[in-house]
Amino acid sequence: MDGNSEKATIEDAGIFNLLGIPIRNVTMAKALEMILDAVDTYTPLRGAYEMHFVNAHCINVAARQSDYLEVLKQARTVFADGTGIRKAGQQLGTPIIDNVNGTDLFPLLCKECARLGKVLYLLGAAPGVAAKTAEWADAHAGSPIVAGYQDGFFPPGQTAQVIERINAAKPDILLVAMGVPRQELWVREHLKSLAVPVCMGVGGLFDFYSGTIPRAPGWMRRLGIEWIWRLMMEPRRMWKRYIIGNVEFMLRIRKIKRAAARKG
Length: 264
Prior knowledge:
alpha/beta
């Protein structure tokens, strides 16, 4: 695919603006296509392609943390993740086509990497977690698609060595699981040093596929209430995010809606 084709692929995708963040309003299939197109159109001169996911929690953090907000505004692609973003779309008159979250996208990405001969590098989570996720990914794909992995608990002084190992593995896609906003800020800080076509922040994805944290049952995911399961699994860590955070998010959306109505 040439540069003009890449431009058409990106610009034809719908946009949902929230806090000035241009969120791509696309299907899961289209998101997967965009990721793989970005790999194919990569040139070292242009640099790595930043792609991230935003949910209600991300928007709350971005509203309070300007450096994270700027990263999301400037990222080359941001996908709509979760029920909160869907509700925001309904409130603001832009229906969200699909819940493009990294956890559901990962198995599809693994299969496509195997089919197309692409490889991943897994960076982040606690020691041992990325290794187990790599085992799952290779088994699911039916061939080795993980070029390397590294947990996220390395001291800052070892960052250069970690980046050297990533680049030496020559991955097509780097998945960074350090949590919001650390992962996005880490990618932005080191983007010019990473010789990787696509870098993506994926939050707690490794915890799910390593078996560290069980995923919500399918019926809860289909109803858009996976957050209740996450709260049940980790109440002490998640109660502020989901109990207080969900209220904060909806109040913020109402404020945005009122401001838009006054302008209209």
